[in-house]
Design a protein that fits this description.
TPR-like_helical_dom_sf; single chain; 353 residues; 19 helices; mainly alpha
Length: 353
Amino acid sequence: MEDTIYDLMEQAQDLPGGAAKLAILEEAARLADASGLKEIAYEVRGEIVDCAIFNGYPLKALIAFSWQLGQFDQNPEEYEPDELLWNYKWILGKVCSFPNIPKTQVEDLVEDMRKRYAEYGYNERPYHYYKFRIAMDMGKLEEARQHLDTFRSIERDSMSDCEACEQSQIVRFYYLTGEDEQALAVAKPILSGRMTCAEVPHVTLSQLLLPLYRQGEVDKAKENHRKGYRLIRDDRDFLKTIAEHIEYLTVADPVKGIEVAERHLHMALDYESELEQMYFYAAMVGLLQKLDTSGENRLIRLPASLEWGKEERTLTEIIGYFRPLAESAAAAFDRRNGNTFYTDWIGKIVQTA
């Protein structure tokens, strides 16, 4: 059985990240579980976490990592702790994506990571950095500001995220608070190419588009849209980033925005991250509402996978279908987070469209 499992893992290794690769890895995990091969099952689930996190399947990553964590705690001497600790950060970066995960459970996970990092001699910079990120995910921007100041005051160690990722999240903070000039200033080392990584500047450029546009830098915004969208348009992992491009195109080039929405809507329909799905639906609704109120008669092509969309639908009908989905998701996140951040955000998008 071990040979069969490793054959499956080799097959998966030859595939690009995505559903097909995950299906093979999940079958390998199932066979390992059925055969009682816990160490191999642990290894396979590490591969699942890696593939799922970076290809738009965060729920699969959470499930696989939870299994690993339980197995590690039963037999810590059998497994390498550093990889598990590093991957814990990936999980915290996605855990807010599901409104049915209670706030207390999210907080418990962060505290558990803090305890484990201290146990293995790592400092609290990652702890406060992820408190910063989670506070942003929950719309608690003043709390995020406090953790921003704290994490930056602690020196980096080997468990810290890369400088580019940290800098990009700081850009995101100022983007969320509407501090356009500060966002653009913080983004300079990323825009210059001095700070880069696998997802930077990909996720950063989209959060500079509206600040640039509002500052009157229309040509720079257009250039960054073109550059940024090329980086992400073929990658399932960037649905929220695509939504931010649509938000920008709503004010800068709505017809182009329709093309982007049409290209990616099929992906949003079955996206695991409810937070990112909500972002996409809200941005698309804002775009369609602007076109609808402007008298634009163009229809949007709906994916064949959407049964409701098999009949020809007007912009008004499409708005009426997706707006309640976005608003109900926002309400669910707000109930979990204890505020009205996402409901207010969607209201602004619709109002300004």
